[in-house]
């Protein structure tokens, strides 16, 4: 059981929140193929994205580093030339690496540049621009128009997801005898939600359920949450009238094309999983999504600068034939940042020092918790857009029960998710939680320093509620923390001597 696994299939969706997957407790969501993976493997209940936006989430997944350390901490801002993705690193260890689907890390617009980065197999590279270039101008317009679902219908073969699955099946048919790492990255169920009409029609009677989170007044919440929810400058809380108007029917609303596309994405995943079982039955299958989405909880919609579970707590399932136990539910906190080192350890590849997470292989095999905390962040929704709140620098930490959120430009949050799973009661000033809050705060500051957060500084420590914070100084910790990326760069030099550094972390 503890031997290396030299074949890995990594499957991900876009904007698929956890309760859009049936096995996570929503019987109305028809996702039989993903559910089957959970029955045959491990379902993680407390898995978190690094940042709840498309590109930064992918930066964390596919570089093993926090988004802010890659250069890609917002949409449409590519990762740096000195940042190696995991495909390149694995390929350099003799593993056949292929990426099929949405990449979003090249600094282009939503669709990408259509160029295969070094390390991935060019024959299988297929980002969204490649898809559009297969279409006529008229078809391109139709591919972005959700109205065609009911007006003229959508052929399965027309969709991006179907074409991605075709390539994945082809790869498995031709290369199953090799050591490989295959990524299948669907845009679905992201807007425009294209899928054959019958998928949407099957959700015509489904309404988004009302939860406690929909009744959040936002009292004692950060100002940017209130602005996002549409409160006026002089409003301290959402009014009862606004909440009633949103929830008066007892059913928040219908979105059949979104949930239909969700089931369509599951069907496409099923095609790939069936091909894995046929051609590479011993492969490790990993499934996840980049982030969730708000359906009006806390008065918010879509995704953006918040750390509520609706957008940060994502589905994560792993399945492998050689694991003896099936249907395991893991309630320990894990992060997308941990997946790269986990994959490397399973594949028997040395884990680079540049990876900022830690492998959870031992947790998977022994069921014992290996991490004290997971960390999340936010920088900006998209560099091209002035909206979506603009820059909102956020750092967060979660210990499996308590979540501390530092909103640098507004005010901070603390939640006890065991007592308050909807994250309504902000405990940041609650004296009963002072010891827990400060312990989380210290651990978060330590992680920002350890991982060379480019935005770190005294201002994250000197919060209004932290009475024992050290006096602000220009030198802050007085440390320098140089990179150790020696698989791809010469060892960095000491500024004072010009010689190779002896210690990467040292007093400045």
Automatic annotation (TrEMBL):
Protein name per its UniProtKB record: Sulfatase-like hydrolase/transferase
Example of a GO cellular component annotation carried by this entry: cytoplasm
Organism: Holtiella tumoricola
Alphabetized UniProt keyword annotations: Hydrolase, Metal-binding
Domain of life: Bacteria
Domain Sulfatase N-terminal, chain residue ranges per copy: 7-349
A Pfam family hit: Sulfatase
InterPro entries named among the record's database cross-references: Alkaline_phosphatase_core_sf, Sulfatase_N
GO molecular function: metal ion binding; sulfuric ester hydrolase activity
């Amino acid at each position: 059981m503890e031997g290396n696994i030299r074949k890995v299939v990594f499957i991900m969706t876009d904007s698929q929140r956890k309760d859009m997957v049936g096995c996570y407790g929503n019987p109305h969501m028809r996702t039989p193929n993903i559910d089957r993976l959970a029955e045959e493997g491990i379902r993680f209940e407390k898995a978190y994205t690094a940042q709840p936006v498309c590109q930064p989430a992918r930066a964390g997944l596919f570089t093993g580093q926090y988004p802010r350390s890659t250069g890609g901490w917002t949409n449409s801002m590519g990762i740096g030339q000195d940042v190696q993705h995991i495909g390149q690193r694995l390929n350099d260890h003799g593993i056949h690496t292929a990426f099929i689907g949405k990449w979003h890390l090249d600094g282009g617009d939503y669709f990408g540049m259509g160029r295969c980065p070094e390390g991935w197999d060019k024959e299988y590279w297929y980002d969204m621009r490649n898809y559009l270039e297969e279409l006529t101008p008229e078809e391109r317009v139709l591919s972005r128009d959700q109205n065609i679902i009911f007006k003229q219908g959508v052929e399965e073969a027309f969709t991006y997801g179907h074409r991605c699955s075709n390539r994945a099946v082809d790869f498995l048919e031709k290369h199953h005898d090799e050591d490989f790492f295959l990524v299948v990255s669907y845009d679905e169920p992201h807007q425009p939600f294209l899928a054959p009409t019958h998928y949407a029609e099957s959700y015509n009677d489904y309404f988004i359920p009302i939860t406690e989170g929909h009744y959040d007044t936002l009292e004692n919440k950060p100002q940017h949450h209130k602005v996002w929810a549409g409160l006026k400058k002089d409003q301290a809380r959402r009014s009862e009238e606004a909440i009633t108007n949103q929830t008066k029917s007892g059913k928040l609303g219908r979105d059949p094309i979104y949930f239909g596309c969700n089931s369509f994405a599951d069907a496409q995943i099923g095609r790939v999983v069936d091909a894995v079982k046929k051609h590479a039955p011993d492969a490790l299958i990993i499934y996840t999504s980049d982030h969730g989405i708000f359906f009006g909880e806390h008065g918010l919609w879509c995704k953006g600068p918040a750390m509520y579970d609706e957008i940060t707590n994502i589905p994560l399932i792993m399945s492998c034939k050689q694991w003896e136990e099936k249907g395991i539910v893991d309630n320990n906190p894990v992060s997308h940042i941990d997946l790269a080192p986990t994959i490397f350890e399973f594949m028997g590849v040395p884990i680079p020092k540049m990876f900022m997470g830690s492998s959870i292989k031992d947790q998977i095999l022994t069921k014992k918790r290996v991490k004290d905390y997971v960390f999340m962040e936010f920088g900006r929704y998209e560099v091209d857009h002035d909206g979506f709140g603009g820059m909102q620098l956020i750092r967060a930490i979660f210990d499996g029960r308590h979540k501390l959120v530092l909103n640098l430009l507004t005010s901070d949050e603390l939640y006890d998710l065991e007592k308050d799973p909807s994250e309504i009661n902000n405990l940041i000033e609650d004296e009963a939680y002072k010891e827990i809050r400060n312990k989380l705060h210290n651990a978060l500051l330590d992680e920002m320093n350890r991982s060379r957060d480019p935005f770190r500084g005294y201002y994250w420590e000197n919060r209004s509620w932290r009475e024992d914070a050290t006096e602000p100084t220009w030198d802050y910790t007085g440390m320098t923390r140089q990179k150790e990326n020696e698989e791809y760069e010469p060892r960095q030099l000491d500024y004072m001597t010009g010689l190779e550094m002896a210690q990467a972390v040292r007093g400045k």
